[in-house]
Amino acid sequence: MEILIYGITNSVTLALMAIGFSLTFGISGVANFAHGAFYLLGGILTWIFINHLGIPYFLSALLSILLVGLLGFLLYWGLMLRLRGLAINEVIATLAAAIVIIEVLRWLGFSGFTYVLPEFIKGSVNIGRVWLDYQRIFLVAIGVALILLFYLFTHHTKTGLSFRAIAQNERTAISLGIDSDWTAALSLAFGSALAVIAGLAILPLGSIDTELGYDILIYALAVGIVGGLESIPGIVVASFILGFSQIAVATFFKAQWQTVVTLGAIVVILAVKPSGLFGKYKELEERV
Amino acid sequence: MAEAVRYRRERIDRGIKARSDTIYTLASYRDMLYLLLPRILPVAMLLCLPLLLGGSYWGKVIFYACIFALLALSWDFMASVGLVSLGQALFFGIGSYVAGGLNFYLKWPMFLTIPAATLGGALICTILLVPVVRLRGVYFSMVTLILPLLFAHLIETLEILGGTYGLLSLTPFPNHWLAVYIAILAVMLVLFGFRKLINEDFGLVLRGIRDDDRVVMAGGINIYWYKAQAIFIASAVGCFAGALMTHYYQFVGRSAFALDYTILPLAGAVVGGPGSFAGATLGTFILVPLSEALRALGGLRMALYGIILIGALAVLPEGIFHYIERKYHQVERDIGI
Predict the structure, then answer these.
(1) Which of A95, A116, A156, B171 is 20 to 30 A from residue B75's alpha carbon, by CA?
(2) Contact B137 A218 (CB under 8 A)
(3) Which residues in chain A are closer than 8 Å to B134, comparing Cβ atoms?
(4) Is the reported ipTM for this assembly greater than 0.90?
(5) What pLDDT, on the 0 to 100 scale, is given for residue B77?
(6) Are the CB atoms for B280 and B73 separated by under 8 Å?
């Protein structure tokens, strides 16, 4: 029972972390290795807004989502536009951006028990023999809602479809009147905003730690790669596989094994089936 | 209405370059100097610097610069096969741990552990990476990004090889000079060796794989075998750097797999100009002393590296070395069109 409940919440947490990354990197093919940094930045900005500027919670949450989204847009427009098409340079540039953000935040000392985001509603509920706080229930609800919205967005709106188009075939997309630069910038902005939303839902469960910036990226990568970067069912299935195996390993062995399992899963999947369990159309791009 | 005059930048090889490239009978000392100076001057400088600086703090910085230069060279070699690594820390860490482990548990002397770590470590790295040589581009990079993290976590979790504490009190170098000169000689050997190798037939195949792997396959060449060989060579260099550093520090710990050993060489290679080996060396010899000078900034150093990396990618994507090389070999002029 414990494994079931914590497995579900953990899986949804992973899915939330991965969804923004998957939108930019998987669906529009724009590398965003600054995903974890944006997640962290969003949390810290919200904390600053609440505690230093005295802005009410929902306003400051909204503000930091918008700000980080804008930052994502600027990252594309200012930097990535020059490197577009050189996949490796995109990765290096965004990884460098991530390091800059995270290390500056670390230097400013935003880490530790004082930096805690408020929960939506305090308290917990007893399910079976397990105490579950309301925040985790909210988290599951937000996760499920986001994934549904995400599916509808990428399959039934014009912007969402154009995101997928530029990853599948950029030239055809351009010839059909999709402005690929604008779309890619927009997808980076959306992905960054999603990272902040995930952060706002997940961070209240613990304190903010700058090390998270790197961890989140790894978890997002793991879910994206195991599930298949461009597939939404893949994200769901992969986060459940990883989420449950993490909890199982932590219960039966030691908590440290969690990260090893995640990292191991990435390596194994990349070696065996790099397009992931559900990925389809990148077969030729990724290996020879 | 006056027509706006537009200009086009034209680049022409200097006469002396054309002469020294094609005519093999060197006519004058000037021609010879033109060819030799860019090679001899850095070598001479590198050999003299430790003597000038002695065993001071900056003398040690030269050693670190050499270590990172070796890692950057190894990165550049893999990049010239189209294998872009985001995990030089893997080679560095494996080399460190093999040398450290042999020295700590089996009490092997240093002149055995370093060669053993170089070859054995390279073999381990190659075996680790061979399953993924089929991967291209970003996918290969992601594996290399993850592997060092995986190892750092494994050592912590399994509490093997000293766990979180690391292996302490390993054999030190008899003196500072030996360490520095081994490092400098290694850098020069690898630098000129790679520059030669990449222009041989073997190197031609490697560059072919980078440019278009399927064409090379169609030519009936087993590209996986070539990629594995390239990984072995590159990882041997990386492991050697790791083994050297281990004995210099007399310590090996999880920090050997840290992001620093990935980002610094990468930044060096990108800033200096990838693809020429000399660029990677130049880049690290600029960046490492710079970062030591900025040590006062503490934690901001890594952030600064990120900024330099971004700046280099955005402003001078060809790298410093290619820029200098162009200025050295060519004249530029604007002509109206």
Answers:
(1) B171
(2) no
(3) 287-288
(4) no
(5) 92
(6) yes
For the packed helices B260-272 and B320-329, what is the interaxial angle rounded to 10 degrees? Answer: 20
Q: Is any Cβ of chain A less than 8 angstroms from the Cβ of B15?
A: no
Domain ranges of chain B: 11-20+32-329
Secondary structure (3-state) at A130:
strand
- Chain B's closest residue to A229, CA to CA, is B139
Q: How far apart are CA B242 and CA B125, in angstroms?
A: 13
Q: Give residue A239's pLDDT band: very low, low, confident or very high (50, 70, 90).
A: confident
| Measured distance CA(A49)–CA(A53) in Å, rounded | 5
Contacts of A260 in chain B (CB under 8 A): 150, 153-154, 157
Report how far residue B95's alpha carbon sits from residue B124's, in angstroms, rounded to the nearest whole number: 9
Of A188-192, A194-198, B33-37, give the lowest mean pLDDT range: B33-37
Phi, psi of B167 (to 5 degrees): -100, 125
Nearest CA in chain B to A106: B299
Whether the predicted pLDDT of A281 surpasses 60: no
Domains of chain A: 2-286 (1.10.3470)
- Please name the fold of domain B11-20+32-329: ABC transporter involved in vitamin B12 uptake, BtuC (1.10.3470)
What confidence tens digit (pLDDT) does each residue in A138-193 have? 788 888 888 888 888 878 888 878 877 777 777 887 888 888 788 888 888 888 88
Chain A residues at the B interface, defined by Cβ less than 8 Å, are: 31, 79, 82-83, 87-89, 91-93, 95-100, 103-104, 106-107, 214, 218, 221, 225, 254, 256-257, 259-260, 263-264, 266-267, 270-271, 274, 285-288
**How would you classify the pairing of strands A130-133 and B7-13?**
unpaired
Q: Which of A263, A269, A285 to mutate to test the interface with B (most CBs of B within 10 A)?
A: A263
CB-based contact B313 A93, cutoff 8 Å: yes
- 3-state helix vs strand vs coil in chain B, percent to 5: 75, 5, 20
Question: Residues of A with CB below 8 A from B310's CB?
Answer: 79, 93, 96-97, 100
H-only helix segments in chain A: 2-21, 35-51, 57-75, 81-83, 87-108, 134-156, 158-168, 170-175, 180-202, 212-227, 232-252, 257-272, 283-286
Phi, psi of A124 (to 5 degrees): -150, 170
Which chain B residue has the Cα nearest residue A259? B153
Q: Which residues from chain B sit within 8 angstroms of residue A93, using beta carbons?
A: 309-310, 313-314
Distance, CA of A37 to CA of A214 (rounded, Å): 7
| Residue entry with tokens 């402003």 | B315
